[in-house]
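Q: My labmate handed me this sequence with no annotations at all. I'd like to see what the chain might look like in three dimensions before we decide whether it's worth expressing. Could you predict it?
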Amino acid sequence: MLRIEEGYGMNEMNRTMIDAIIKKADALCPDSLAMIGVYGSVIIGDEYEKSDLDLLILINDEKGQVLADGFILDDIDIGYDIYCTSWDMLENDAQCDHAHLSKLFNSIIVYCKDKSALKRLDEIRRKAAELLASDKRYEKADQVYSNAKKMLAEVYLAQSLSKSRSCAGAAIEFIENAVMLYNGQYFRKGTKRALDELKQIRLPFDLETRILAVIQAETVEKIRAELTEVFILTDEYLQVPKKKELPSAENLRGTYEEMYSNWKNKMAEAADRDDVYSSFMNLLSLQYMFHEITECIAVDGFEIMDKFNPKNLEENVEVFNQALNKYLAEYEKAGICPRHFESMTEFAEDYNKKIFEEI
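A: Here is what I predict for the chain of 359 residues:
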């Protein structure tokens, strides 16, 4: 059994609390308590007279949950939460779906029953550190940022000041986490130092001021406006870096024919029927396909939805055809010629000819 008690905030009161946890584990679940670690303000020297003790109480099984408790010390008016963490929960933290990873990375182990547990903890920490140092961190940041966008939608749907503030607060938390993960960092010092830690990243914009503007907004309308400004700043910054392939016959072949087949005649039909909905959705589908291609392949961008005209559907047909012709130029640059046939019979003969070429 390993015990490290000197330093690390181990005053008499803290030692009494930790000893009580170990004693209860020995009596009720001797095989359940893997280790106890200390993290948070006590470790980093940021505590004040009302600071509680943040503990990593790592348990091997559900029996260890008997150690969980919560209480208030009346003489000093401090509340304590004895919270138990399972190995699975620690493994989930190591997936870096959020940036509050101080418990995982920075806990100073003050009690460990078996040194094999330390080895397992080190391995979990290693995996998490590797993830934060890899390009996968961009995916994690993007996932968290997607949650922030959902909260932005909730802010715009909210009618009460309370709900608007709550959803805006959630959006801010997600954005903060996304920024940290994007930079391969995590929060070491807790919520009260979050803005200080974000400032250390040296972002190309003043995120702290913008966040405080949201927090200090006094109306639903002002919250919406200020939170939108935060998203305008962070949206481009948090884009996932992607290495685009050069256009080639391998990665573009068939895409022009697909666009032509799926929507060209439908655009004209929508105009003939004066069907504004179909005209819009067909043009939108082409836009989506352009976005999908240009995300991965280095061809010119194609933005067409700004040209949609709900009052003149013939104009939309022309917008579609011009975009398709522009894409055809990219297609041909890659050395691809669209496949044309005079008749279905000619196509069938050519199509079946390939059977004999491949045998």
